[in-house]
TrEMBL record:
Pfam families: Patched. Its main location: membrane. This is PTHD3 protein. It is found in: Membrane. Belongs to the patched family. It comes from Oceanites oceanicus (Wilson's storm petrel). One of its GO terms (cellular component) is membrane. The lineage of its organism: Eukaryota, Metazoa, Chordata, Craniata, Vertebrata. InterPro entries: Patched_domain-protein (IPR051697), PTHD_SSD (IPR003392), SSD (IPR000731). PANTHER family: PATCHED DOMAIN-CONTAINING PROTEIN 3, PATCHED-RELATED. Keywords: Glycoprotein, Membrane, Transmembrane, Transmembrane helix.
Amino acid sequence: RLSCIRNNVWLACCGVVSAGLAVLSSFGLMLFCGVPFVVTVANAPFLILGVGVDDMFIMIASWEQSSKEKQKSDVKSRLAETYAEAALSVTITTLTDVLAFFIGTWTAFPSVRSFCLYTGTAFVFCYIYTMTFFGAIIVLNHKREQGNRHWLTCMPVEVDKDQAEKSCLYNACCIGNCSRQSSEPESEHPMNIFFKNYYGPFFTNKWIKLLVVLLYGAYLGGSIYGCTCIREGIDLRNLASDDSYVIPYYNDDDKYFSAYGPRVMVVITESVEYWNETVRLGIENCTQNLE
């Protein structure tokens, strides 16, 4: 926003901090419980950050919508309206994510089990911090705006009498905005106007709805056909970087040694008298028979 008062930079930063707190809490709890930490768990914070930022935007949008519809001055009423609108969406997304990862703990692979435990627990903490910590931050940010305070320094911003003589950039950064009064209500966001006045009416047209149904049918048919073409297995070359020595190794292995089949190994699990010539001959005859 082009306003040093209604700019929500710190609010966005606190949303990221909320996701970081969820990662720290979940990792600390899992490590305290003795759950092994594997390398794949290092990818979990990026998943939590994505969901946490998404929940943050839902909360902020519901807060601003409540102010436009109800025009409530009571902070408790506005926050209650915000939670009534946003909490259901945030709860459903969190429940589906948590169920998906906790179901993954049934796998036989220990590394996947640890990854699902860490990530599923992090989603639970992300929900808790969004409903508690971030809600409190929204209220504090609202009080800052009500006090006409700067977003960076939190110092009171006063209307300059010589504002008309200043540039628009100076007024936006140091006074409030480009208009005469720094505390005037903010107009509706252009993105909301676009979806409400253009995007929504466009897709409610009956011909557009028919086209969307046909496109989705084609997409669904292509997806079903793609599922029938999936082959089991994994190409180890896809797990390495493009400049890794592993890729030419597997290329040469397929080119020169693929005709020989898999490597067969024989393991003797008992204690054997290798110094006995008869035993050595028996082992040699065994290997020859296998060949």
